[in-house]
Amino acid sequence: MKKIFTFLLVMGIYIMNSQCSYTMDILSQNGYTITCANPTINLIAIQNSNYFYPNHLWTGPSFTTNLPYANVTQPGIYTLTISEGITNCTLTTTVSIGINTAVPSSSVFPNSASVTCNNPVTFTAMALTPTSNIMHSWYVPVSPFPNGNESYLSINVTEVTNFYSGPGVYTHKLKDLTNGCFVTQTVSVTSPDAYPTFSLGSSTNYSFGCAPLNQTTISIINPVSTQTPPATCSYTFMAPTFTGIVTPSVILGNNSSTVTTSPGTWSIIVQDNSNFCRTMVDVTVSQNTLVPNVIASIPANTLTCNNPTFLTQGFSSTKHSIISWQVPILGQPLTTTLIIGDISNGPPTSTIALFYANFTVVATNSINGCQTSSIIPIYQDFRAPKSIPAITGTPTSFCKPGDVVTLNSNNSYVTSAGPSPSIIVNSWMGPAPQTSASTSTYSAYVTGNYSLTVEDSYNGCKTTSIINVPTNAPRFGLQGTAPSSSASCDGTVIVTTQIPNGYTLSATTGLLDGTTISNLCYGWLKVCMTFTAGECYACDSILINAATSIREINFKDEILIYPNPSNGTFYIKNTSGKSATIKIFNVEGRQVSVAEALEATGSGASTLREPQGPKYLEIKNLNAGIYFVEVNIDGSIIRKKIVVLK
To answer: In this structure, what is the dihedral angle of CA atoms 565, 569, 575, 580, given to the nearest 10 degrees?
Structure first.
């Protein structure tokens, strides 16, 4: 008998987080009451969204699973909780599973009988409880024979059966069609005559389904005459549509098997050709075209930079089902799991197209050959955001000491198709000694190229772009020759770069002639370049001392001072491998007091040694302004300007 399964909606109690953008139901493949016919209830989680594929958690009496379906074998309350990390959504549904496994009762009379060849015996079976919606079935002694001759009575409480199957033990089964539970009774039949014996077989267990299993073969196995000496046997197969009479005392056919695509009750006769004694058996051939159910569990249906691949798995709660996948590259691999986004299973991803490929999960029932497939469209979103760093406010370039140029990421935007995507500032980075940051605005202290890396909050894709922060401040260097003695003022300083157009040069002392400053005594000389039509200027200082010459040493190779600009506290790192003496001067050439610079008493100098490796010196509590750090390493002077902003 063909069985039809209907998905039944099981209404539960829903608890929904306000952030959820979808709802969820529990569907049952075979009801929600445990019976003898359905000892396992197949529950499946169904959500009404094509976008999110949440995590599942089923809980119940001695039962938990993380699959999208649950096979329940005990009554009780079962809870399904689904959660999804992108929106922090959580939904909970509860369903009640009942049980009905009451066994019916019956009686059969007489308990035994004797028959003669081709004269049937009559037995009467009665249903005691229940008396409606029941099925009477008789199983004959021909073995093996799993189906029997089943007759369905929905009204009568008794069933009278005539047997032509010869001697042996016959079994009556009474089935309650409400829950599938049954009870059996046996009777014994004897005979003085020699009935032929045989067994029956079917290539598909007396049923057929979908192609290529859309037919079955019924075979008479080992037919034997029980006479002495044994005689030959002949056979016939009467289809369900046969309405005639098989003439007695004639030789039947020689075919011991038949192939059929017709469901219904077939009558099989084996005849002893000597005494014409016949053994007849009715067998029910069913057409089973029940298709298996199939579902796929995937964490998402869109490939992104955050999740360029993910694992998907196919399931079927129908027994004897084989899961396979049809993929765009390999065709149909026989596997229950599949890595989507892997180049071996699908096409290359694209930063332009939103559709990726269709994947098909297939469930094939190995018993009846029927298939169910489900097409799963997979999308992709690898579109990168636009990184557009901009200069906001004033100044838009460096013009004078202490200028700060503010950069922002406000013009950056996303191009993905996700739900409510936004820009995440992944990092700002500028020339040394600038440090990285992940804020929407960024303060630039030095000229050069600054990079902005932004990320799409939905797909995780990143883009980096560059903006140049220029300077209008002049750049120049100083190279000096010390006075011949402490009483002389014959020192000189040469400005080592040409004066830019529109700028003038000034010095706090000495005689300025073009780019040469003469008549210098011992002490500090401050030199400034100022734009005559604006506010841009730059100043530098040089110490005229007893050295024969003052030269600049590559600062990066010997000393590192950071951060610069700072908020009043900075660090000095000595990598020269030699001892160094540190002094700090303000723009007027005055040495800063030790207490102000180093928070300690002393001569105004700090000795920095590093016997085991690079050492650090911390300078604190400098007031806002411009300072010059002078580092003396074996008589060589290293000078560096620092800026304190507060």
So the answer is: 110
Q: How far apart are CA 188 and CA 600, in angstroms?
A: 116
CA 471 to CA 473: how far, in whole Å? 5
3-state SS, residue 228: coil
**Region for 604 from its dihedrals, namely left if φ exceeds 0, alpha if ψ lies in -120 to 50, beta otherwise:** left
Tokens of 524: 């500090």
Amino acid at 406: T
Phi and psi at 563, nearest 5°, equal -75, 155
Q: Which helix (H) or strand (E) element contains residue 596? A: helix 594-598
149: pLDDT strictly greater than 80: no
Q: CA-based diameter of the chain, in Å?
A: 155
The sign one gets for the Cα dihedral 418, 424, 430, 436 is negative
Give residue 136's Cα distance to chain centre: 53
Paired tokens of 271:
């005849």
Chain CA centroid to CA 441, Å: 34
Prior bond of 419 cis (ω within 30°): no
Q: Are 382 and 302 in contact (CB under 8 A)?
A: no
Structure-block tokens of residue 55? 């995590």
Over range 528-536, report the average pLDDT: 87
**Ordered alpha helix ranges (H), 58-103:** none
Among the listed residues 233, 216, 217, 231, the one whose alpha carbon sits nearest the alpha carbon of residue 279: 233
> What are the structure tokens assigned to 334, written together?
């026989």
Rounded distance, CA 389 to CA 408, Å?
6
pLDDT at 558 over 50: yes
Query: What pLDDT score was predicted for residue 13?
Result: 34
Q: Quickly tell me which residue has 């530098």 as its tokens.
A: 540
Across 37-88, where does the E strand assignment appear?
A: 41-47, 55-60, 63-65, 69-72, 76-84
Phi, psi dihedrals of residue 374, rounded to the nearest 5°: -135, 125
Angle at Cα 488 formed by Cα 486 and Cα 494, nearest 5°?
Answer: 100
H/E element holding 540? strand 537-544
CA dihedral 153→154→155→161, nearest 10 degrees, is 10
Query: Can you tell me whether residue 420 is helix, strand or coil?
Result: coil
Higher pLDDT, 14 or 414: 414
456-482 tens-digit pLDDT: 999 999 999 999 999 888 888 888 888
CA pair distance 626, 596, nearest whole angstrom: 14
Cβ 26 vs Cβ 94: under 8 Å: no
> Are 340 and 359 spatial neighbours (Cβ–Cβ below 8 Å)?
yes
Q: How far is residue 295's CA from residue 312's CA, in Å, rounded to a whole number? A: 11
pLDDT of residue 30 exceeding 90: no
Encoding tokens for residue 395? 């100044």
Q: Hey, CA dihedral for 88, 94, 95, 98, is it positive or negative? A: positive
Say if residues 364 and 376 touch (Cβ distance below 8 Å): no
User: Could you report the per-residue pLDDT of 303-345, keeping only the tens digit for each?
Assistant: 999 999 988 888 887 888 999 999 988 666 778 888 899 988 8
What is the chain's mean pLDDT, rounded? Answer: 82
CA 65 – CA 67 distance, rounded (Å): 6
User: Taking CA 333 as the corner, what is the angle to CA 328 and CA 335, rounded to the nearest 5 degrees?
Assistant: 125
**What is the tens place of the pLDDT at every residue in 413-423?**
999 988 889 99
- C-alpha–C-alpha distance, residues 51 and 299, integer Å: 10
Least confident window among 89-103, 150-164, 583-597:
150-164
What are 345's strand-pairing partners? none
User: Can you give the pLDDT at residue 302?
Assistant: 92
What is the rounded CA–CA span in Å between residue 320 and residue 178?
Answer: 25
